[in-house]
TrEMBL record:
This protein's name: ABC transporter ATP-binding protein
One MF annotation (Gene Ontology) recorded for this entry: ATP hydrolysis activity
A Pfam family reported for this protein in Swiss-Prot or TrEMBL: ABC_tran
Signal peptide range in chain numbering: none
Amino acid sequence: MLSQAARTLPGTKAQPDVPIIAVENLVKRYKKAEKNAVDGISFTVPAGAFYALLGPNGAGKTTAISMLTTTLAPTSGTVSIAGYDLMTQADLVRRQLGIVFQKPSLDLNLTAEENVRLHATLYGLYPYRPLYRLMPSAYRAQVHALAELLGIEESLFKPVKTFSGGMKRKLEIVRSLLHRPAVLFLDEPTTGLDPESRRSLWDYLRQVRAESGTTIFLTTHYLEEAEGADGICILNHGRIVSTGTPQQIKAALLQPTLLIDAQDREQLRAELQQKGLPFEEGAGFSITIDKQDIHHLLKSLATPLSLIQTQAPTLEDVYIQIIKQD
């Protein structure tokens, strides 16, 4: 468990009812470009939320994330993070952010703790000491609390070059949480990880969020990782093409699919054709139908059914349809 001190976010001006991230008409146009890389996007993220920014390659995700994390200057628009203005208070904004980049930024020749200690010194959290035992007790307690939370306490003093990909990601999260950020940005955090490491990492991230109340802002190409998000923003060609909860986005675009089959396929096929229902035939008869009409259809069929199965659309199904339509 994190201590009360580790759960507090010092220096943040954000209030419970005020979005931790507020983006309005954000634009980025690179020099000599004919179009905006990010074209007037607006969205808000509540404090403590899990929010996902999705889109194909070239959609503007990297540019948007770069602006939100202060590494790229916007052309126009306004951004507020934890109550601070991105344009005029960039230094204060940076202190509210933890960032885990797609490519690891660890020094492989240092131990895990030495990587964390260097980060703490660069952020001005603690004075640098050449040995761990000489660091302030508050630092040592905080590092152990975070390492214990992510399950790497026994590896703190081992060289990072001996770590697996999953362990390196966990260490980066420990390092990024050391200054107790209001928002943790995760840019493709599981790229290159095997399925077991991906699952383990997300288990730890859920625990971190529950323990610390940190807002998580994710970009990913693994759409199943965004299924549990509180909010999603889908970009394409620099513009927002869909936004809302996963459930809202799915409900607005795709209906559930009913899969039915029968011993007497010819009779069932004839019934469906008589009712004027479009279907696809394969392992059964796949019918796209409104949820409230499924029960009525099943009651109306005279053919005895051998298979009845409903299939809800996934976020990936909806995402592909949105990108194709745009």
